[in-house]
Every structure is written in structure tokens, then in C-alpha cells.
Amino acid sequence: MSVVVAGPNTALPSRPRRKPQAKPSRDIHRLLTQLADLQSSYTPSEFAKNIDKQLLYLTKSATTPFTRIVSLGLGSLSSTERGQTRRLKQLALLLAIQDALQQQTNAPIQVYAQDPTFTKQDEALLNSLSIRILRTASGSSLGEAADVIDASTLIYSPFLTLEAYEQLLVESRQPVQYVIGDDFNALLEKWPKYSAERAQVQKVTKAALGRYRRKAISGAGFWEESDGAFPMAVYAAQNKVAERARM
């Protein structure tokens, strides 16, 4: 397969529907059916087109080719508590990012996922999709992900704690080059002016994100009002951050 080189108005090839690695249980089959429906709604959306456009920019500008995605904060996919559809959409987006990178780089992209709320059913679902599980003791710790992240890693963090973001972007021994996750500009507006959470957001913003190119992600057709607020942005390391990551 040749590398995709697309202009801003060029549609990427349709993505093949992946198959589970083993025969799933009834509960896993139900989740996979829900996931497939969400993937079908994602593909033609404006949101998907904007994501693909930003991924194309990353693959063309990256000095180290992508080989892996580390997902942090995916949430429990099997939990039927409020927000399950949003969490399954987060998984659909993760798989779409993997597929897009594989098409654009013409190379396999391994996916890792870590969340302290994962159940055995969650892990079985992710394993059926060839996603490797990483462990962490709590949502405020990077856990095993800290040993997996390198210069070829794209971080996908749809719902990560501010404490983990501090470790990831400010304190990490391996500088992170690319992140698709929370839009910190939007997070600043979320918290009251003198709250501890706003202070944490400001710390990460001042200490790390000034060295990244930020691009907010928007677009209709996938996230709905019932999913809750989900402001996202793509962050790409510039200058010294990228140089340190390659060392």
C-alpha cells in the first residue's frame, strides 16, 4: 500500500472494519456491536475529517515515524453508568486514529491502553481488538505507561486527571512529542478563577504547553450534547521538546 498524501479536501480511503481476535462472549459481542454502530457514525462526520487532517499534519512533520499509541484515561467501557456511550465513542476514536495512522504511514501501529477503572470485561474487549493493557495504581499516576512512551509514541488522553497530565507533560523523563486529548484552553474556562484545579491547569500550560503547537478539534456529526462536554486539541512538540525526545 502506498503512503497517502492528501490535500485538505482529499478524503482518505475508507477504513476496513477490524475483526476480533477470538470468539467474544455475549457481553463482549454486545459491546462490539455498539462500537461498530459508533464507528459507522464517526466515519462520515466532519469531526472525523478534522481529526484526519491533523493526523496527516503530524505524520508529515514527525521526524520519528509513529509506531505506537498510548491511550490514557479511556474509562470503563463495560460500566453501564452514565457516560458509557461517550466512553465507547472514545474507544471508536482511538481505533480510528490507529487506522488513519496506519494508512498514512503504511506501517503497523500498536495500541496500548491504561485506566485504573478497567474491569476484566474491559480488558477482554480491548484484547479482542489487539490492544495491549498497561497497569496503574491510580488515575493520578502514569503507571506502566511511563516505560512505554518514547519518541515514536502518540498519546491519546480523552479523560486524564490533571495530576497525570503534570507527570506526563512536566515531569516525564521521556519528553512527549504528540498528544490528542483535553483542550487546556477550554479547561481554563471550566474551573473557577482561584480553584486548585485551575492552578494545576495553569501550571501545565505555563511549564509545558507553551512549547507545543496547539490545534483545537471540532466538527459536527459525532459528539452530541448528550455525550457531555468533550473539548479536544492536538498538541505537537516544537523545537527543543522534539529534539530531546529523539535523544
From TrEMBL:
Pfam families tied to this protein: SRR1
UniProt-annotated stretches for the region Disordered: 1-25
Signal peptide from the UniProt entry: none
UniProt domain SRR1-like: residue ranges: 54-199
Domain of life, per lineage: Eukaryota
PANTHER family linked to this entry: SRR1 DOMAIN-CONTAINING PROTEIN, SRR1-LIKE DOMAIN-CONTAINING PROTEIN
Name of this chain's protein: SRR1-like domain-containing protein
Organism: Karstenula rhodostoma CBS 690.94
